[in-house]
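Need residues for this backbone.
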């Protein structure tokens, strides 16, 4: 078991590298992939919207899983869910499946990412505190930003090149393979240090409590309220620009 801060940092950076690399493999080609599967422009963008819906629905429940079963368990479930849903996406492309199948799979992809949300960082903070880390968390997260940015660039460009010289399905196969490697590394090296799971038999009660706490701390606090209200617009505009650019690019290729 890893019990030294440098090893914990290295594990975190490797997991972040592989996770971001796997995610970004399909970013540049996902719209082309959906259109090639037979979906219309509207259906392709709607399928991506269902991915976001999955994140909205499962963000709180998976957070409770991380608190009750452990951050390591949550991370492992995330890699499994993403790998399976990625392979389902590949199957849907090969079979020219219906929009409903793509929409359901997109929700599962959203579920997979919510297992990672906050769990990886929480594991890192607890483990470093447990091992009496003398440095600053900011320095570790800064390294994570650098590694994540590099993986994002390499994955998005690499996925496009691989698809160009093979076919649109190969990046999805590689994504599933990288997620499998990520699962193996997390299973061997990622352990919940300094964290005791909080067992609960009342999941829905806990979800209600988290929701009410979010309202009390967020929407009822003036400084935070406007940040929460502005967030959907800021994120919405960024997604609109991203998908509009993807649509224009796809039209140019046709």
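Answer:
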């Amino acid at each position: 078991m890893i019990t030294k801060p440098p090893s914990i940092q290295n594990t975190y950076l490797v997991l972040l590298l592989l996770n971001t690399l796997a995610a970004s493999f399909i970013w540049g080609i996902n719209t082309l992939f959906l259109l090639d599967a037979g979906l219309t422009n509207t259906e392709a963008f709607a399928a991506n919207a269902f991915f976001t819906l999955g994140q909205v629905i499962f963000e709180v429940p998976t957070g409770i899983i991380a608190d009750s079963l452990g951050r390591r368990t949550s991370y492992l479930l995330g890699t499994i869910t993403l790998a399976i849903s990625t392979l389902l996406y590949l199957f849907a492309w090969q079979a020219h499946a219906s929009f409903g199948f793509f929409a359901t799979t997109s929700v599962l992809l959203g579920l997979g990412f919510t297992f990672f949300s906050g769990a990886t960082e929480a594991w890192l903070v607890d483990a470093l505190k447990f091992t009496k880390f003398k440095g600053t968390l900011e320095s570790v997260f800064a390294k994570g930003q650098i590694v994540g940015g590099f993986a994002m660039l390499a994955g998005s460009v690499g996925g496009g090149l691989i698809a160009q010289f093979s076919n649109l399905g190969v990046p999805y196969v590689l994504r599933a393979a990288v997620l499998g490697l990520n699962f193996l590394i997390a299973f061997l090296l990622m352990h919940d240090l300094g964290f005791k799971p909080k067992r609960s038999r009342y999941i829905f009660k806990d979800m209600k409590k988290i929701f009410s706490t979010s309202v009390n701390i967020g929407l009822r606090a003036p400084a935070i309220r406007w940040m929460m209200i502005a967030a959907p617009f800021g994120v919405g505009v960024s997604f609109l620009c991203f998908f509009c650019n993807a649509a224009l690019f796809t039209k140019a290729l046709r």
